[in-house]
Amino acid sequence: MSTPDRALLDWIEEAPEERGLRFAGPGDSWDFHSYADLAEQVLRTAEALRTAGAGDGDVVAVVQRCSPGFVATFFGAIAAGCTPCSIAPPFALQRRGAYAERARALFTTARPAVIVCDDESLALVRGVTEGLGLPAPVLFDALVAGVGPASKPYPPAEFALLQFTSGSSGRSRGVLIGHDALRNDVNAIHRWTQWLPGDAGVSWLPVHHDMGLIGCLVSFVTVGCDGWMLQPDDFLRSPLRYLRCLSENKLSLTAMPNFGLVYILNRVRPEQLEGLDFGSVRSLILGAERIDPQVLEDFEKLLGPYGFDRRALLPAYGGAEATLAVTGLPIGEGWTTVDLEGEQAGRYVGCGRPLHGVRVRVVDDHGDEVPDRVVGEVLVSGGTVGTRYRDDIVTASGTVLGGGVLRTGDAGFMSGGQLFVVGRIGDGVRVRGRMVFAENLEARLHELGIPQRRVAILLGHREDRPTGVVVLEKPEPRWQSAAHSVLAEALGHEADLLAVEMPRGGIAVTSSGKPRRRVMWAALTAGELRGDIRSLTPALLGAASPPGAPRSQ
User: Fold this and answer.
1) Which residue among 26, 204, 243, 467 is buried most deeply as judged by most CB within 10 Å?
2) How many beta carbons lie within 10 A of that of residue 3, not counting itself?
3) Beta partners for 459?
């Protein structure tokens, strides 16, 4: 059965009572809200936003966890003829100082006419926005109190969404997404996954991130399927609850980054899966970060005896400037790898083929398309690409958006029609005429037993010398020697090699957990990177900071 194209608010007109979203409550409880109830709340919120002063095309900032209030505010902003912008609530960045600094930059870019918070976020957001010339944030419950619903949606704004890039390569940038682009991307996801109203899914991903917002929540709502919504910390506390939800409700759709699979592998034992059945899972979309083939194999071994089909693993590629999804592996095909030889030797997982209406090219430094299995920059065009940035700041990300073409700043190659992603060009360094990518070195360190999210590689030039830095959180004694071997092999012995030891939580990450390599590199070169900095030169392993290196703070 084909999947029909749907506009973003079509679901409101015939919202069913029998299907809806279930939000995780205490223990194993779930709080059900039918689409009929949510549609009424969306129209009520639309009227409340207009009453609160939001006008045609104004930005509405949504600073809430995934909740019925979030759904009502996000879609209510669209129904009010405004542009919603989901900003991470404080829980996403536990250090208050770090949250305040980054959130102020987001609010400054967004310039919202209304800021809608939940109880957990209100006090801190009020302090963050003070002095920015913005309206005082308001609680969702207070916003809608005593307001009747709009009779119908207001005429749409020019832009359906303002969403921020992850900021892994520097400051997060606001991308303006048109209604056509958002609708096209959501419909392309539905077509790719053969997603119909009778399907059902579960998500634990944060709704301030494009994969959780568009790939899960918006896709659930617009197709009208049942959805089970966990908070990210629900998953972190108990990945087994997530797995039980998949099994007990016979769900077919879900999504997560590679890290989520790793977390399940580290926290769930085979005996805990007795009695569960994952035979209903048809699509487990994987994206947001590089995919480790060994992790896929280990995940299959863990869940395979309980009905999980390896063909349900669907590697994908996307980004905020492309709305979300760019490529995805077709259902039933089964994931594959390519062993690349030469400068970028390694084993890479295929991220599928371009989705409907999307064109992907891989080009060299001159903009010419390269043959299969030749690494170049990934370029994206088509009906899902964002319109422009909200700001005009310059970042070190290497990503360029304009004229309907997205230069992603990602290195990759094509093979057999599939895209294979190598890494961020801006996070690499050229040594002896070849590019070395941080992600490749991190992948090698993971193979040597250093866990994900405990290590980050920084690459660049200092005083015209290639420099490789390994940042380690609470490292074991053997990690530095392993890092030296990997860095020295990749960069040569003429490079400066450094190690930075940090406590747990010390590696700077985005609100979705990706390492902010360029931010840490800038701090290192400015002498502001906190941690115990040591040389990885063999004679100096275990010695104090080398001459000219920033001192520990």
Assistant:
1) 204
2) 17
3) 468
pLDDT per residue as tens digits for the range 221-240: 999 999 999 999 999 999 99
DSSP for residue 4 = P
Rounded to whole angstroms, how far apart are CA atoms 470 and 448? 14
Report d(CA 110, CA 54) in Å as an integer. Answer: 14
Angle between helices 258-267 and 293-303 (to 10 degrees): 50
The counts of H helices and E strands in the chain are 16, 29
Report how far residue 501's alpha carbon sits from residue 536's, in angstroms, rounded to the nearest whole number: 12
Contact 384, 188 (CB under 8 A): yes
Contact 150, 83 (CB under 8 A): no
| Chain centroid offset of residue 347 CA | 23
d(CA 377, CA 385): 17
Handedness of CA 281, 283, 288, 290 (dihedral sign): positive
pLDDT band of 397, cuts 50, 70, 90? low
Q: What is the DSSP string of 274-316?
A: TT---TT--EEEE-SSPPPHHHHHHHHHHHGGGT--GGGEEEE
CA-based nearest residue to 221, from 66, 110, 114: 66
Whole-angstrom distance, CA of residue 524 vs CA of residue 548: 11
